[in-house]
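Hi Y.,

Following your request, here is the sequence exactly as I used it, all 574 residues.
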Amino acid sequence: MVEFLGSNLMKFLAYCILFSFVTVPLVEGRVRHYNWEMKYEFKSPDCYKKLAITINGRSPGPSIIAQQGDTIIVELKNSLLTENAAIHWHGIRQIRTPWFDGTEGVTQCPILPGDTFVYKFVVDRPGTYLYHAHYGMQREAGLYGSIRVSLPDGESEPFSYDYDRSIILSDWYHTSTYEQAAGLSSIPFVWVGEPHSILIQGKGRFNCSTPGIEAGLCNATNPECTPYALTVIPRKTYRLRIGSLTSLSALSFEIEGHNMTVVEADGHYVEPFVVQNLFIYSGETYSVLIKADQDPSRNYWTSAKVVSRNSNTPNGLAIFNYYPNHPRRNPPTVPPPGPRWNDTEPRFAQSIAIKSHQGYIHPPPQTSDRVIVMLNTQNRINGNVRWSINNVSFNLPHTPYLISLKHNLLHTFDQSPLPEGYDFANYDIYSIAKNVNATTSSGIYKLKFNTTVDIILQNANTMNLNNSETHPWHLHGHDFWVVGYGKGKFDKFKDPKNYNLVNPIMKNTVPVHPYGWTALRFRADNPGVWAFHCHIESHFFMGMGVVFEEGIEKLGSLPTSIMGCGDTKGLHRP
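Below is the corresponding structure, written out as tokens. Let me know if you'd prefer a different format.
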């Protein structure tokens, strides 16, 4: 009898193990522990001295280097003294840990000055990701960094290279986030303006001879603003992981004289294609392969130029340094000027070109259960300039949605349903709206769990004549299939017939081009509450976002560490 039970138990256990491998890939991971302290320090990333938010004294902050399946633990001490904080792990889906998504007002209360908060989550997919502040407009003060997740030992990618490098592109203002937020909220409206500099891996160069600069603030010989140098060995192939965390700017990135082969986007393998310059929008990540196959006796310029805005911001420059040349040796050439800022065709063409790699396609559902069309407009509300979705501008509540929904504190946010479309027949996307007034709401979209949702992002004219801006939209907690792009007004009867349902790329951030539309499809299969918003810092601050709720009832008890604000004060236990 014991033998019978033993043999059958072994068979049952073997079957369970086999079944678990078939349904959920099991990856044995290690625990990676980080101790971070964030604080303000005077920095000169572009030679101009101003306060920046650092992590352990650095901006960009320390990189998280991990393997698929690893558990990341970050003990984050907030030493900002007078500011709350939160950090979002951009591109990490937070499966079974929605409370550690790091979105203040959505998934957690902010981290108070002097407090230490512990984030703990699993990096379940290989790829290139980011982290950054998600409180107020702190991201543009320098609080950001990169996350690189590699495959487990013994597994390979569908491309080869000799070395792996990461850089982050960002834009940089000399005005503080407080000044900018006050201007955006004031009557009359004060726009943030164009950035003073573009930074490549935290380094740029502002012209210290600019009239009106206070003596001692700008020092062109400061080693902090020495151009970043990416050193390469001749004839070797490099995987360059590029992330953009600009607060405003869309960028064109190029390395003088070198082609780039795009192989990854937001953690998914791309059917490779070659570019001379890569268009990248805030919140996106790409991997490109670059072969160091040019004249090795010199260095080359790396350039990042603002596109989609008529900007006076100088191109960001770095050095593509061929060893053994000195990394500070300037190239003998003039830096590449980059494409025209208002040439939309190549940007649209790149978006269309990004397809999922053959052999790594995640087939999308062929139909959707719900379609939400989101008209992106600029509006006025009680004299303030705001951004709106279907004429509704988003306001964060004081009590985070995740806690309100789990603890039935429904009085803490608006319960009225949000519009799922606009007046398709009569709205002219090419003109300033006849009535620019809108309303505000803290309401959310409640999604039925495990259903398929289509989102159509429809761009339109701003409140300025003949002007439509590029908006990069980022979805928390999910990847989505990018099933279509189009120019003009989305036709809900004709355009879905042309969706790419064969090999669409999956992403977490995607642009909607001027006077165009972008169609996304995702499964509402990750229990939690998730933000979906424009990744331009000032636009989200001005209301350009929404929140999705799905499967809250499937979550267990929430950690009390995320509580302590709004109506959760009585629920918090230190």
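The helical segments are 2-23, 177-184, 344-353, 401-406, 537-541.

Thanks again,
Q.
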